[in-house]
Amino acid sequence: MKYKIVLIVLLCAMVSICLLGCGQKVTNESDKKQESMFVTIESTNQWIIVRHKETGVIYAVSDGGYNRGIFTLLVNADGTPMIREDES
Questions:
Q1: Domain contains 86
Q2: How many domains is the chain built from?
Q3: Of 14, 23, 48, 81, which has the fewest Cβ atoms less than 10 A away?
C-alpha cells in the first residue's frame, strides 16, 4: 500500500513539473520581427476594434477577464462584413 501512495505522489509531481515546463512560450527572433496583420481602430476596457490590413474587414476582439481574445466579425445591417479601407 505504501508503494502505491509513493508512486501516486511521484506521478503527480512529474505531471505538475511537465505542465509548468510546457506553459513557457518559446519565441524565435523571426517571430518578434513579424508585423501584425491587424490595425487597432478603437480600444476600451472590454473590447478592441481592429481592421485587417489587407481586406479592410473589421472585427471586435474581446478583452475581458474571462473571454480575452475572441474575434467577432462586425456586419452591416444587410449582413455583409463591415469594411473600412482607410489606414486608421
A1: no
A2: 1
A3: 23
Using CA atoms, how far apart are residues 83 and 88, in angstroms rounded to an integer?
12
- For residue 36, the enclosing domain spans 2-73
Is residue 60, in this structure, part of any structural domain at all? yes
| Alpha carbon distance 49, 61 (integer Å) | 6
Global confidence as pTM: 0.58
Tell me whether residue 87 is in a domain: no
Mean pLDDT of the chain: 79
